[in-house]
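Annex B. Sample input.
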Amino acid sequence: MTSPDPDKTPSPDAGRRRFLQQSFAGTAAAAAGLTIASTSHAHAREVAEAAEPEVTNDVDVLVVGGGTAGHVAAIQAGRAGAKTMIIERNSQLGGTTTTGGVAFPGLFDAWGKQVIAGIGWELVRESVEMDQGTLPNFAKVPQRHWQNQVFTNQFLYAILAEEKCAEAGVEIAYYEFPQAVKKTDGGWEVDCVGFGTRRKVRCKQLIDCTGGAEVVGMAGFPRLREDERQPGSYLFMLGEEHEPGRNQIHRLYVHGADSTNSRTATEANLTGRKSILAKVRKEGKRLMHLQPETGFRESYRIEGETVVTVNDYTSGRVFEDAISYAFYPVDLHTRSGVKPKPLKPGTVPTIPLRALVPKGSRDLLVAGRCVSSDRLANSGLRVQASCMGMGQAAGVTAALAAKSGSTPREVPLAEIHALLKEHGQIVPGKA
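Annex B, continued. Sample output.
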């Protein structure tokens, strides 16, 4: 007769302990008037060859970075019929709006009318409507520019973005980032790595939406950056409940915040969290909300086929290859704060396609704050609505280039404009 395994047979004392622990927990919950919520269930589909560490994908368009510009670019490329993949090193889409916590995007309007719409606006609007929030009246010119920024539920936004990617056939790869890029006759070969995953992506067109043009740098194209960068912001809430989509949260300037690499980003995050912990101790208030990372304002920019200057921006120059509008004050943050310089009435800047094309490149675009621009112009161009507009234009252009077997600069501007309009974007007219 086999003896019971003492490691698997519960002792009477262990049983009594469990009974007492369960009884005490139930009694305490009842005394506090609490109920234990039931657990709902969802079932993840089985991932093909999940145990294999090496994966290969062949796509038309690869978007690196799922932030403000990247998720819009990917959705647009997918909707345009391109087989599209998006690589994101974090765990969600949305970037500054979601992970950074600046769920207050703008500006979609200028001087009493909407100037940026399309996929980014679609996501913002649906997030607000689902959250029973309030949209601004763009027909009314506000006294202060921020009054027409849109309170958005960051959590709804992130999962709506995933839904729209799925509907557009876009494959998402979280927790991964490129390690090497190589030009090929048919486009690009990009080696990515995540924990337990090594992925090779062969693509016809590549869109860098990393914020700091990190893929462009890997490919050997020049980038621009100042010695000093604008401070980042770490968002949190002390003492009162944060209501997503209803209020702004507290902000801590992190001076010297640098998103150049994992080490500098780590230092920015540690600095921000240490300062917030000190505030909790000093003020004796509860920490009610904390974003997972610092929001970065400034890093590398590309040297594009053209450079948008502050004079281009503040004069509202309509470039001959303009693909999107932008609107925001010149907004350079410094150690002493920020004093936005509003644009003159009626002025609406534009963004040229050439500013999204790294100089001398083929089959490569950027979108977002790494747009080719000088520092002051970039301080206005870097905001969310403008980055969403760039992302949609890059998605259209890459999809058309992949379909025709050409490169972005060779795609007829009329075709880019026509497809943008088909997908709800507002396209700059001729001067």
